[in-house]
Amino acid sequence: MVSVDVPVVVGLDNGGTSNNATVLRLDGRFLVDGLVETPSEVTAGPQAAIEALAGAFDGVLAHAGVPRGLVRAVGLDTPGPASATGVISSRGSTNFAQPAWHGFDVRGALERRLGLPVIYHNDGNAAALYAHHVHFGADAATRSSVAAIVGTGLGGAVVVDGRVVTGAAGMAGEFGHVHIPLAGLLAPDQPEPRCACGFAGDAESVASLTAIRRNLLPYWLSRYPGHPLAQEPPDRAATLLRGYAERGDALAREVFAQQAAALGRLFTIAANFTDPHAYFVGGGVVEAAPEFRDWFVDTVRTHTVLRQEQAALATFALVPDRDMAGARGVAIAAAEAVRPAATPPRSTDPAPPPHP
To answer: Which of 68, 158, 133 is nearest to 321 (CA)?
Structure first.
């Protein structure tokens, strides 16, 4: 426990099963090292979920030894889709499937419950913002980046001058639904991949866990008859695939090579729109064995076509601290909201964590 006598903000990362919370002093020091998780209760509906977030808020302050009176704002992230102001999509989402969630103002409800300003981002934006600030440190406010977060779907974000670009409706950085060129990416007889959103050939239709299960793995299993994954249920086979890839399995590497190539093509499009200083990759690959992780990022880099001038300046890196990135990212956003000339964040005493 670290005593604190300067103002702080709290970051709350809301997920399908758990909330993770952190505390950031306005001088840029995180007071929580590691996960502080509590049940999110989202399946019990909005009222229970808001109470769970309030409980996570109180719990992390107690964990850090910080009086509530020092809190100046709260950062909140949730999975999308949601508006820039934290209103869940009118159609709901995977995490917010109950009708009571459809169109629910989660940010406003938490703000009323806590009596404090609440700053909202979706979880992809939050992780990208954290990666940007950790990677660039003191230069974060003068740098730009794009991030692709590979999970059940494909999230992402654009960060310019240290701030997330949200767009008019809060949907900027939805890289998953950007169409990418498929010529040369797919095998000659491979079917055109389809996304759960209804698009064909967008980035998420290749680079996501859902894409593995629905599009990639069924095809590659037909090319590798007798592969052990053919005996597994589709959902389990998709989740087991990364372990096979880490061990160098040929089928698994074919699948992940296509995913990495898809991200490279996506980043090529981003390069021509935003010309960022850095390209971040996040999601389950961050937790993979180092050899596979490095191979994956190198493959993304190889398939990102940059001009010579861009290549001389661009960096490719992983989103660090995957489990904590969301809470820390929205804490940074909250700190920026209450003191715009933000001090670059530092990690818990005594030293900052290494980053790519």
So the answer is: 133
